[in-house]
Write a structure and sequence with these properties.
This protein has 55 residues and is mainly alpha-helical. It contains 2 helices and no strands. The longest helix is centred in the middle third of the chain and has 22 residues, at 12-33. It is elongated and about 60 Å long.
Length: 55
């Protein structure tokens, strides 16, 4: 009897890449609107880029 395992989790590197893209798009929207970009976004974006560069 062949039993398929349940669906697991999306790999972290995929979620991190999706999150980086989400932050990048949000920053672009804020720049286009002339609104101040939250420092937390920039910090998180830089952390995700550094993590990608390390891999």
């Amino acid at each position: 009897m062949n039993v398929k395992p349940p669906i697991g989790l999306v790999p972290r590197f995929v979620r991190d890449e999706q999150r980086r893209i989400e932050i990048q798009n949000a920053i672009t929207r804020y720049l286009d609107a002339g609104i101040r970009i939250p420092t937390d976004w920039i910090t998180e974006y830089n952390e995700l880029v550094a993590k990608e560069d390390a891999n």
